[in-house]
């Protein structure tokens, strides 16, 4: 892949965040006094390898999200589109809006606001070196069981071959677009799953503990602690 094209980041942010408890959509909950979505977009932009960011926001919040980035510019071009009923659909809607000169696409969950900028740069570098699809991941620390509908264990996969996958995931634009266009349902929980179905090799690179996803209330406590640690060492996220 040449260095001639631009790099875009799609940020699915349209989830309701029900596992966090009732209230505002997850991406608009604050940590350290700033909405989760703002942290995520600023992390992408401050990597300096992302030229534009397309946010898929809840339909009811489009004006508020646009206002957020008018007030706190991110240092990259930011546009906001309405997300869909599933994460996959939210990503597909953002993908449709990309200008022609974008050749590398990242997809990054708004719910991973503390992703280190070095991880963003590492994913883009791997795609620019020629990978069609790149995912950051960590080894799993729990033993994972497979269960049936009655919650009975039917298998214990070998832990050493399992990885917990994070975002940003990076793609050659053509590979991601082809995979989304060919998808026959909207249930994929990450974008790599779609390109895998096309026989595209997905390269794993080391993830980062601070790229964790905010899902449950305890994750908010952890996020506040990471921000406090960064502030204490003057690495503001
Ligand atoms: O639900 P989950 O935690 O897997 O969501 C991952 C990301 O996808 C979150 O940033 C969430 O806002 C986003 N999402 C979305 N549209 C949906 C559901 C989730 O953009 N309909």
Please describe what this structure looks like.
A hairpin with a 5-residue loop joins β8 and β9. The protein is built from seven helices and twelve strands. The protein has one domain: Spore Coat Polysaccharide Biosynthesis Protein SpsA, Chain A. The model has no long low-confidence stretch (mean pLDDT 94). The protein has 237 residues and is α/β, with parallel strands linked by helices. 43% of the residues are buried. The strands form three sheets. Strands 1, 4, 5, 6, 7, 10, 11 and 12 form an eight-stranded mixed sheet that branches. The radius of gyration is 17 Å and the shape is globular. Bound molecules: cytidine-5'-monophosphate.
Give a brief outline of the structure:
This protein has 237 residues and is α/β, with parallel strands linked by helices. It has a single domain (6-137, 163-236), classed as Spore Coat Polysaccharide Biosynthesis Protein SpsA, Chain A. 31% of the residues lie in helices and 22% in strands.
Helical fraction: 25-40%
CA gyration radius, whole angstroms = 17 Å
List cofactors, ions and other ligands. cytidine-5'-monophosphate
What's the CATH H-level homologous superfamily?
Spore Coat Polysaccharide Biosynthesis Protein SpsA, Chain A
Number of domains: 1
How many strand segments? 12
Query: What is the helix/strand order?
Result: EEEHEHEHEHEEEEEHHEH
What is the helix tally? 7
The geometry reads as globular
C-alpha termini separation: 30 Å
Q: Strand pairing plus helix content: what structural class?
A: alpha/beta
């Amino acid at each position: 892949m040449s260095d001639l094209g631009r790099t875009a980041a799609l940020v699915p942010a349209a989830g309701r965040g029900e596992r966090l408890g009732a209230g505002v959509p997850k991406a608009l909950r604050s940590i350290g006094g700033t909405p989760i979505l703002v942290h995520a977009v600023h992390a992408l932009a401050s990597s300096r390898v992302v030229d534009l960011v397309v946010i898929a926001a809840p339909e009811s919040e489009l004006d508020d999200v646009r206002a957020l980035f008018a007030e706190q510019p991110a240092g990259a071009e930011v546009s906001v589109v309405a997300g869909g009923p599933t994460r996959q659909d939210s990503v597909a809607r953002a993908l449709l809006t990309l200008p022609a000169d974008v050749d590398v696409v990242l997809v990054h969950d708004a719910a991973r606001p503390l992703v280190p900028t070095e991880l963003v740069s590492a994913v883009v570098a791997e795609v620019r070196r020629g990978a069609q699809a790149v995912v950051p991941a960590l080894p799993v620390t729990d033993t994972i069981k497979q269960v049936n509908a009655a919650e009975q264990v039917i298998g214990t996969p070998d832990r050493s071959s399992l990885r917990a996958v994070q975002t940003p995931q990076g793609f050659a634009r053509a590979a991601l677009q082809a995979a989304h266009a060919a998808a026959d349902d909207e249930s994929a929980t990450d974008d790599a799953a779609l390109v895998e179905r096309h026989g595209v090799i997905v390269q794993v690179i080391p993830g980062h503990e601070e790229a964790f996803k905010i899902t449950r209330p305890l994750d908010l406590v952890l996020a506040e602690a990471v921000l406090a640690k960064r502030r204490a060492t003057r690495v503001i996220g």
